């Protein structure tokens, strides 16, 4: 069994190509990396050569690969900090992303453009929305990205239940979920199915001006009314409440003396677009790490000993 498992890992990295951007939901039983298929392929190659040296060469490759796996842990520790990073020397598998929106989806669009441009090493494979006709959903359809309705309501009869949503996202092999202006509370089933894998962006410097009822222009009006001199976007991991998950990244913008809510919102939104792309880049490169006290940090690409 150990040999067969090792052969399966070896094949999944060197024989069978990955599947990107399915246009239709894929069957749950689809064998993306079938161990039996890999083993049969290797056996066929061995039989065709009719030469024992070919088999010995393959065996030596597997032994070397096993040693490499043993030496290159998927969890890295740097000065008391653990990371879910893959080996930089061998590159990274492109990550599958699902984005959740309720409106125009400007952050969704900026991330999508970054995936197309190559700066984000991932692909948006599904768009989840609670509003079938919102701008973000229209953009997704125009770009061949499958749209999933959630939750099911009297206005959206085709919406999915929480469990069906988890099933649908797994069908697309989603690695990470990015909330970009999604106004519904994320169900506990999804939070538990994707631990430390769901991010949200909020238009204030959390924990200030966050929680239920604080969204959109309401946030910016509250910031101005409070007399705060600074605001800006926050990206945080999602838990079972509104805006209470661990903070990952923030960007500060000034609140000017004569600002309107609309002017402040535009200033914050510009930084949202930049910050969310930067975080998506780090996420897909495995540079989100967790301090021992549970605080997430972003590891510098240029200097692995620096964090932000």
Automatic annotation (TrEMBL):
This is Phosphoribosylglycinamide formyltransferase, chloroplastic. It is an enzyme of class 2 (transferase). Its EC number is 2.1.2.2. Belongs to the GART family. InterPro entries: Formyl_transf_N, Formyl_transf_N_sf, GART, GART_AS. Keywords: Chloroplast, Plastid, Purine biosynthesis, Transferase, Transit peptide. It catalyses: N(1)-(5-phospho-beta-D-ribosyl)glycinamide + (6R)-10-formyltetrahydrofolate = N(2)-formyl-N(1)-(5-phospho-beta-D-ribosyl)glycinamide + (6S)-5,6,7,8-tetrahydrofolate + H(+). It comes from Nyssa sinensis. It holds the Pfam family Formyl_trans_N. It is found in: Plastid, Chloroplast. Residues 95-279 form the Formyl transferase N-terminal domain. Pathway: Purine metabolism; IMP biosynthesis via de novo pathway; N(2)-formyl-N(1)-(5-phospho-D-ribosyl)glycinamide from N(1)-(5-phospho-D-ribosyl)glycinamide (10-formyl THF route): step 1/1. One of its GO terms (molecular function) is phosphoribosylglycinamide formyltransferase activity. One of its GO terms (biological process) is 'de novo' IMP biosynthetic process. It comes from the Eukaryota. GO terms for cellular component: chloroplast.
